[in-house]
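Subject: sequence -> structure tokens, single chain

Hey, anyone have a minute? Need the predicted structure for the following. Not urgent.
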Amino acid sequence: MSKVIDRIIAEVIQAEGGYVNDPADRGGETNYGITVAVARANGYSGPMRSMPRSVAEAIYRKRYITAPGFDRIAAIDEQIAEEVIDTGVNMGPHRAGEFLQRWLNGFNLPGSGYQDLFVDGQVGPLSIDALRRYLSARGQEGRLVLLRGLNSTQGNRYLEITENNKSQRRFLYGWVRARVVLPA
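Reply:
Had a minute. Here:
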């Protein structure tokens, strides 16, 4: 499992890139995709440009994987975990958890074996059980459909961000190009 998480973190860091200080970016100064606010909240006090990759990796593991329970998703399905973690990095783990819960509720049919989830963004035992039961009932096709749903919601959220704040439009194309990947 640790190798799966390490791979996902490496892919997120590759997508995020290195040091950036774009005045138009609402996240402000970042390195490896970690904002200065998140770095400070996690104990890093040095210059962002010099933040070691290992610090970013530790923050990703703690804040974006373990704390929201996304490591439990990785134990069930790596690709769903990748999608939820990537969304959590860009939009916050709470929102990524909400997206997963909403789609599991939307696909929940009578007799599916799981109850509708309270959409609170917390991926706890009920969410994990619902994901297991959903995948057991729907199989590989259901997995792909869930991934498409999650990506669709992520893409729609990026569009909403730019509709609400036109200064963010310059990022929309790149967000969708790099982050909204529909499985075949």
